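Posting this for the archive.
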Amino acid sequence: MAYLEWGDPRNRDVLICVHGLTRSARDFDEVARSLCDHYRVVCPDVAGRGDSDRLADPMLYAVPQYAADMVTLIARLDVELVDWVGTSMGGLIGMALASMSGSPLRKLVLNDAGPVVSHASLERIGAYVGLTPAFATFDEAVKYVRTISAPFGPHSEEQWRFLASNWVRQGKDGTWRPHYDPRIAEPFKATMPKGDMELWNLYDAIRCPTLVLRGAQSDLLAKQTVAEMARRGPKAKVIEIAGVGHAPTLLNPDQIKHIRDFLLEGSS
C-alpha cells in the first residue's frame, strides 16, 4: 500500500486521511498542507487505487480488508493513536476502526459518510464504478470528471483539473484512463443491498469524538441520518456544507477550517 507523508516524520501526532471509492491520496493535498504544521499527515492509496498494488482476489475489495490494511499501516507508523479524516468509503473504514475494542482512533472526521448509505447513491455510483473510459486528451478526462463529479459542487477550472489529475493516468499509447482497478466494481455490485445499507452497529460502538461533514445536497447521507448521528453513539458534531452534494472535496479553505478547528480543539 502506497502512501504520502506530510510534516515531521518524528511527530507523534498522526493524522490519517483516506479517500473515496475511486479516488486517491492526492485528494487530501490541501488538508495536509493546512495541518502538517501540527500533524504528521499520512494519506494512503487504498488497495487497488493510485500507486498501491491491486489485489489478486477482487472480492477482497471491501471494508474488512481495507480496515486490516490500515491497522498494518498504523503499526508501520509506530504510533498508538491516530486522528482520522475519511471521505465516503474512507469514512466507512474509519467507522470500522473506531468501533473496535481498543480502537487506535482518537478523533474521527466523517466526510459525507455515515451508518446509512442510501440505495439511490449506491445505484448512482454503481452506474460508473468499474468503467474504464479512454480519453484522447487530458481535457477530455477533465470534462468527464466534471460530469460524473457534478455533486462535488462549484469548483474553479484549476480545481477540476487537479481532481482529474488524481483520477487518470496517461498510458504508453498516449490515452488517459482511470487509475484504479476496475474490478473494485465486482464486490460493490455483488453486495448491493435491495435498500439502504445500514451500519448502525458500527456507529453505536464508536467512543471517540466525531465530526460529520454533510454536503447539504448529498444523495448518500440523508439529513435524518445525521440528525440521528448527533443523538446516538458518539453524538457527533454535524456541519452542513451548502451548495455541495456527495461529497465535499476539502479543497475549499472554509471546508478545511471545520476539520482543523475540530481536530485541534483543546490542543496547545
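The mean pLDDT is 95. The longest helix spans residues 63-77.
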